[in-house]
Design brief:
mainly alpha; 333 residues; 0% strand
């Protein structure tokens, strides 16, 4: 029978207490954003002592939170963050790639976010949560229909205040189009949120572990992010295929294509932002621009360039204007 050493159990108790303290702020406005970092103690514990200790400590923390705060809060911790955090910690514990930890953790967080959304629907509708999960597509449609009906009733109140019917009609059409788009793009929203949450938690974990005297391989600095040469052509073929599907409106692939197009646009936008940061850093070194001023300039540039960031990313993907892949010719020197 496998036993746990005393040190692992003590650290598990300490990190469980930290997790409980974070859970206390779950229902406090503004301060509840701290729960975004719930995976941090779980990942650290998994990194130091492995998967089992991490899971056990998270389960203990969930029970305490259920008793001290609310059973739903404890269930949310256990259901949404326990497995992704423990798996990320385990991957790092085994010395695997940090990219693998973020990618796998992000996908798991996306999957558990679906469960969290199903739990929310259960609370709102009092339906059986297993029925909600099994009929998730229908439940999502019902949820957004309710949002539209409630919003429509609110908008129609303005007719009694003298707003003309044409304006109300146009407003309702815009709301309906927005809700329909949000419904279709929910998969990419879950995935993007999951990967982003895994990324920021990984960065925080890296800082804490470095303070504790441990080193984990960091991912490349943001300003050097770029798609490898071997993936450039497949990425462009995929982009072209998605654009053709949307152009010819192939109905049975429309929803899938819209999600992929949104995901690709986000990815190109991130690459474009990476290019902007790269040249801003280069200008900062050349002209001795203070970092706070660089951050301010970046904010201004993002505000004005956000719409063309995906195109900047696409251009860099083909031209490698930063010359990060040295086997290419040309580029900015």
């Amino acid at each position: 029978m496998k036993t746990f050493n005393v040190r692992a159990m003590v650290e598990g108790a300490i990190f469980a207490a930290v997790t409980v303290i974070m859970g206390i702020f779950y229902n406090v406005p503004v301060l509840n954003t701290i729960t975004l970092f719930w995976p941090v103690p779980i990942i650290i514990l998994g990194y130091r002592h492995g998967f089992r200790i991490s899971i056990i400590s998270t389960a203990v923390a969930a029970v305490i939170i259920s008793l001290a705060v609310n059973p739903l809060v404890g269930l949310t911790l256990l259901m949404v963050y326990a497995l992704p955090g423990s798996v990320m910690g385990m991957i790092l514990h085994r010395g695997k790639s940090s990219y693998a930890a973020i990618f796998v953790g992000g996908l798991l967080l996306a999957a558990t976010a679906v469960l969290e959304f199903a739990l929310m629907l259960h609370v709102l509708s009092d339906k059986n949560i297993f029925d909600i999960v099994l009929n998730f597509g229908q439940e999502i449609q019902f949820y957004y229909n309710n949002i539209y009906e409630t919003t429509a009733k609110s908008v129609e109140i303005y007719s009694s205040l003298g707003v003309d019917q044409e304006t109300i009609k146009q407003t309702l059409e815009m709301i309906k189009a927005f809700i329909s788009t949000a419904e279709v793009l929910m998969p990419v929203f879950f995935i993007f949120t999951g990967v982003f949450t895994a990324y920021i938690n990984f960065k925080v974990v890296g800082v804490i572990l470095n303070r504790m005297g441990y080193y984990i391989e960091d991912i490349k600095p943001f300003y050097t992010w770029r798609v490898k040469n071997s993936f450039v052509i497949p990425v462009f073929i995929l982009t072209a295929a998605i654009l053709l599907i949307n152009y010819f409106k192939i109905s049975w692939m429309q929803s899938f294509a819209m999600n992929l197009l949104t995901a690709m646009s986000m990815a190109y936008g991130v690459l474009g932002l990476s290019v902007v940061v790269y040249f801003l850093r280069k200008a900062g070194k050349a002209y001795d621009i203070p970092k706070p001023l660089q951050s301010f300039i970046l904010l201004i540039l993002v505000v004005f360039l956000y719409a063309i960031l995906p195109f900047i990313g696409m251009f860099d993907l083909t031209a490698d204007i930063r010359r990060l892949n040295r086997d290419t010719t040309g580029g900015v020197k």
